[in-house]
Write a structure and sequence with these properties.
The protein is α/β, with parallel strands linked by helices. The chain is 35% helix and 19% strand.
């Protein structure tokens, strides 16, 4: 029997690899003869870098970069030396959680630190990039990141247009003469799970701006700035990605990646499953084991465990899921390819007790053992 395990992290309790290792331990108690493979699982959002560093023997690179409001922040990314790959979350340098509510200011919030992370990784030898772009504090169209990589944005007086969303309306010319020479040697794959265009009522400013501090009286102004940025970009480079699905992601950062970096925007779960080589392991698997902290109807709407199930069903493997908690709506997961799911908590307990690492490990192992004894 071949079993492939890919369980998402049980946030605040077990990492993806820790959860998978616990399940493997239980499976081998029931079936000592089984071949059990553990893969890291994430969806391109928060926790992806940690999951892939741990699961793919990567190195954590800590740097100091420019934060969303201009002050230095400590951030990090993963470096997989084996294939010269950097794994990043833009939120590490420009995330909304880095800015207190009272200090949110979309007029000046910048993605400059994201560009600094990319530059550091390129100069370290990385040529392949996997970047998650969820959770931004910015609405700058990605010009901060691009400026850190050598692009220049000028106003009508030939001066630097500045930082943040307020700069976009001022841009009249763009220069790529000083762009970082290594960009053209790199391959960028961007984990993006939104389909919003850059501008308009479904664009970056109107849909995601309010959580970043965009007030009703600022929406029209900032959206017009985005449109101006797209127009000058199109006239400079001869391409227009403003209407592309995902261009509006992360305050227009998706547009910057498409227009200036030649990146590919890919659904997060598909990108990560491909990066960890899960499909190759599933080709001859009998059973796939997946799961997450809480299994509910939202899981069935494309979250990581369902991505695993979709791949496993391609090769006719049975799919079992384990979770810390299971809701009534979780039955939707059965229609999404998960044959059966099981909560791992074994008795009445407090949430704090259930989430203690040693308890969660023991519960995951025990649940997996009993299911595989039946199998």
């Amino acid at each position: 029997m071949k079993v492939v395990i890919a369980i998402d992290s049980l946030k605040g309790s077990l990492s993806s690899i820790e959860a998978g290792t616990a399940a493997k331990e239980g499976i081998l108690k029931a079936r000592p003869d089984a071949e059990v493979i553990v893969k890291p699982l994430a969806d391109g959002g928060e926790g992806t870098v940690d999951a892939l560093i741990e699961g793919m023997n990567g190195e954590r690179i800590d740097i100091t970069a420019t934060g969303p409001m201009g002050a230095p922040v400590s951030c990090y990314y993963g470096y997989l030396k084996e294939n010269d790959t950097a794994i990043m979350e833009m939120a590490s340098a420009a995330g909304i959680t880095l800015v207190p509510d009272a200090e949110k200011n979309p007029l000046f919030a910048t993605t400059y630190g994201v560009g600094e992370m990319i530059k550091d990784a390129m100069e370290r030898g990385c040529r392949n990039f996997i970047i998650g772009i969820g959770g931004s504090a910015t609405n700058d169209g990605g010009i901060g990141m691009l400026k850190a990589l050598g692009y220049e944005f000028y106003d009508e007086n030939g001066k630097d247009a500045g930082e943040g969303g307020q700069a976009l309306a001022k841009i009249v010319s763009i220069s790529a003469k000083n762009k970082h020479p290594l960009i053209s040697q790199c391959n960028f794959r961007i984990a993006c799970d939104v389909n919003n265009p850059l501008c308009g009522e479904n664009g970056a400013t109107y849909i995601y701006g309010p959580q970043k501090g965009v007030t009703d009286n600022l929406k029209k102004k900032l959206d017009a700035g985005m449109a101006n940025f797209a127009k000058v970009t199109a006239s400079t480079f001869g391409t227009d990605y403003s209407a592309a699905a995902g261009a509006g992601a992360a305050g227009g950062l998706g547009f910057a990646f498409l227009s200036y970096i030649g990146a590919e925007l890919i659904p997060g779960i598909d990108l990560i499953l491909n990066a960890v080589g899960l499909e190759n392991e599933l080709k001859d698997a009998d059973i796939a084991v997946t799961g997450e902290g809480r299994l509910d109807h939202q899981t069935a709407m494309g979250k990581a465990p369902v991505g695993v199930a979709r791949l496993a069903k391609k090769y006719n493997a049975k799919v079992i899921a384990f979770a810390g908690a299971v809701t009534e709506g979780a039955t939707a997961c059965n229609n999404a390819g998960i044959d059966a799911f099981f909560p791992i908590v074994r008795g009445v307990t407090t949430l704090d007790e259930a989430m203690k690492k040693e308890n969660a490990h023991k519960n995951m192992s025990a649940a997996a053992e009993q299911v595989f004894r039946l199998l």
